[in-house]
Write a structure and sequence with these properties.
mainly alpha
Length: 129
Amino acid sequence: MIWILSYLSANFALVLATGLGVLALAAVAWFTRNWKAAVAAGVVLITGLAYQQIDHNAYNRAQAEQKAREVAVLQGRIDALTKANEADAARATADAAEISRLRQLASQTPANDTPCLPVDAAKRVGDIH
């Protein structure tokens, strides 16, 4: 029901014209004892209320469409994040397998206890300051 206040402020001229038309036709019907004027006042009132309801339904539909667009955008973002997470998990699995393979190769390498440089070359390198 709170939307009525918003509607009144947005369509003040229409509400005023409808209200004054209904009052004028009702007054004419009352003072002239003319039933046709009373029917006309009823028709104007019903038309005004019907327009108000149609306008309210259109507003609700526009809001629902806007929310549907927002939901679609957010769903697209969620899908993109899901794909990125799946790709990251696949990459992590592949990396773990590669690290395991490299560790296995490293453990199979034979030990080498021989010095890499002869003693005199190592002294020359050590003498460099």
